[in-house]
Amino acid sequence: MDKMKTKEAVSGRPIGKKIAAMIKRRGRGKALGIEHRVDGRTAEDLHKEIMAQKEFSRLDPAFAAYVYPQIQLSIVAERLLALKELAPFADLVSQAEDLYMPGGPPMSPLTSSYFTCWQFFDACVGPANETIGTTVLEVGASFEMHPELLRLIRILQESRMGFYIHGGRAGKLTVLEDIFTGAVCRAIVPSGDCGKKGELWYARVLPPPTAGGQEHVVFTTPYIVLHPGLPQWREYFRRTIPAAAPVDDYERHMKFGPTRQYWNDFVFEAYVNYRAEAVYLAGLPDIPASRPHSMVSETNGWDAPGFFVQR
């Protein structure tokens, strides 16, 4: 990627463009903490530098390749969120923190890995569905952030949660099939949970971070959906995804949901149990009585076949 392409901003992002222009006018670029500007290093050089750092050396290289840009993004985002122009993002995330107290069970079923991705890449405002991630991409491009960092942040920004059928193991990798698109991948699972064939997973699965790579990455702690099964979930998507352009609608539905808190509500109300490597869920997003902690279930009791009855 040459310097001209590095400077290209994300199209159709008015908030991001406004912030980037304002920071340039005020001459505050150096205070943002943007590191690894364009300096002649290749993507390979940057990956070697990442893995040489003690905190990343113990991680799988494919996982570390995404953890590092997320940390860099969080540094820039922390400074940007102090600007009044980004108050809509700060308010949206603050409201979610108050509602769900994220951090993982037993306090909350919203794990840190899940919520961090949601707040940076899915929590959107405005007609263009701008996020903290798209804003950092705009600012990073304007201040010549290293093109490899921009590329990886863009992959993170374009990612979304999805539902996958566990297809068994292929060596050290877990085979996952997207239940809507049918796409099959082989992924590392950094949380340590390899699961069992036939399980239904709700997770954020990222593509291989480097050209020619084979390992996808399950970037969030897996949510394992105990009930209902695959037929009921496919029926759910038939109810919620229009027939026209179904894949695009599915991508949008999984990333943003019909409401800002749609998928957060689902995880919070569908929680059943957990262990260190995975969290267990039950229910469907559009049937409150199917989720154990929905208002309907907590009022009338929840009865899920094959699990337990709560009265």
Task: Give the topology.
Elements: H1 3-6, H2 14-26, H3 43-52, H4 54-57, H5 61-80, H6 87-100, H7 112-122, H8 132-142, H9 147-158, E1 161-170, E2 173-178, E3 184-188, E4 200-206, E5 216-218, E6 223-227, H10 230-240, H11 246-256, H12 262-270, E7 271-275, E8 278-282, H13 295-300, E9 302-303, E10 309-310
Parallel strand pairs: 3-5, 6-8
Antiparallel strand pairs: 1-2, 1-4, 2-3, 4-5, 4-6, 7-8, 9-10
Helix pairs in contact: 2-8, 5-9, 8-9
Low-confidence stretches: 1-10, 306-311
- Whole-number total of structural domains: 2
Mean pLDDT across the residues is 87
Number of strands: 10
The structure class reads alpha+beta
Short description:
This protein has helices at 3-6, 14-26, 43-52, 54-57, 61-80, 87-100, 112-122, 132-142, 147-158, 230-240, 246-256, 262-270, 295-300, and strands at residues 161-170, 173-178, 184-188, 200-206, 216-218, 223-227, 271-275, 278-282, 302-303, 309-310. By secondary structure, the protein is of the alpha+beta class. Strand 9 and strand 10 form a beta hairpin.
Describe this structure in words.
α2 (14-26) packs across α8. The chain has helices at 3-6, 14-26, 43-52, 54-57, 61-80, 87-100, 112-122, 132-142, 147-158, 230-240, 246-256, 262-270, 295-300; strands spanning 161-170, 173-178, 184-188, 200-206, 216-218, 223-227, 271-275, 278-282, 302-303, 309-310. A hairpin with a 2-residue loop joins β7 (271-275) and β8 (278-282). The chain is α+β, with helices and mostly antiparallel strands and 311 residues long. Mean pLDDT is 87; it is low at 1-10 and 306-311. The strands form two sheets. A five-stranded mixed beta barrel has the order 1-2-3-5-4. A two-stranded antiparallel ribbon has the order 9-10. The chain is globular. The chain has two domains: 3-158, no CATH class; 161-310, no CATH class. It contains 13 helices and ten strands. The chain is 44% helix and 16% strand.
